[in-house]
Design a protein that fits this description.
Layout (H helix, E strand, L loop, with lengths): L4 E4 L4 H4 L3 E2 L6 H13 L23 H7 L3 E4 L4 E6 L4 E5 L4 H4 L8 E4 L19 E11 L4 E6 L9 E3 L2 E4 L5 E9 L4 E5 L4 E9 L16 H12 L7 H12 L1
Antiparallel strand pairs: 1-7, 2-3, 3-13, 4-5, 4-12, 6-7, 7-11, 8-10, 8-13, 9-11
């Protein structure tokens, strides 16, 4: 079986703050939403929502799109507190960590925070995010990943995260380029002040993808002879109960498509 191999440059990080399957990370808002559903039930209960039947059970904590998406791939977390200070309208920054991680890694680790100059992206874009540094900060982590042949790894901003002070600049790690160093470039959405990036903060989401390409077609509901039947089956299966059981729906379509 193909597998990703995450290799820490600092012995012990793989034990105290491992890279984990995204499904294992519990965001604060998800825990609050889960408790709200247990305590109060459907979000449309006792509300006049014209587009929904009042008997429907609807809640963010049950949305299959959210749950599936936020659980995709792996979460890379910060293994240590980082203090970040922005000065002179974001043209100067300072950082500090509790330990010297370059020294602990036998000088394999870069400085914890470096940057790409504003000329890297800012000068080419006409709609830069408001109140965002014009340089791209780069959070350098003590991880390499070995990617199996036939795969690549997409790095993105964690889906439905709690911390919106920064946004990851997405990218792709390729098998063909050898060991991939996990450095996380970010848009930092502030230009002054002191910030603490706490140990355990999700910094990036890594999603493995097959490098195979898919063929595709373009048609419409009249030309596609299976469309009407497939749509009716989907609607009937999703709404056969007031409380949709998405696992039951998944199992139905797995059996139907075999």
């Amino acid at each position: 079986m193909d597998k990703l191999e995450f290799i820490s440059m600092i012995e012990g990080v793989e034990e105290i703050m491992p890279i984990i399957p995204a499904s294992q990370h519990k965001y604060n808002w998800v825990q609050k939403a889960t408790k709200d559903f247990k305590d109060n039930g459907s979000v449309v209960k006792n509300k006049r929502v014209l587009s929904h039947n009042i008997n429907d059970i609807r809640h963010s904590s049950k949305c299959p799109g959210i749950i599936k998406l936020k659980s995709k791939g792996f979460i890379v977390r910060n293994h240590s507190d980082i203090k970040l200070t922005l000065k002179e309208n974001g043209t100067v920054y300072e950082w500090n960590t509790p330990l010297n991680f370059s020294q602990m890694s036998d000088n394999l680790c870069e400085d914890t925070i470096t940057h790409h100059f504003r000329e890297s992206l800012y000068d080419f874009m006409s709609d830069w995010p408001k109140d965002t540094l014009t340089m791209i900060l780069k959070i350098n982590l003590p991880w390499y990943v070995r990617i199996p042949k036939g795969w690549e790894v997409m790095m993105i901003d964690p889906f439905y995260k709690d911390d919106f002070r920064f946004t990851v600049c997405p990218g792709i790690f390729e098998h063909e380029l050898g060991l991939a160093r996990i450095n996380v470039p970010v848009f930092w959405h502030n230009t002054s002040g002191e910030f603490l990036i706490k140990s355990g903060t999700p910094l990036a989401q890594l999603i493995p993808m097959k490098t195979d390409t898919l063929d595709y077609s373009l048609t419409n509901k009249t030309e596609d002879k299976k469309f009407k039947q497939d749509l009716n089956v989907l609607r009937l299966k999703l709404r056969e109960n007031f409380n949709s059981n998405y696992n039951k729906v998944r199992n139905f379509f797995k059996g139907r498509n075999e």
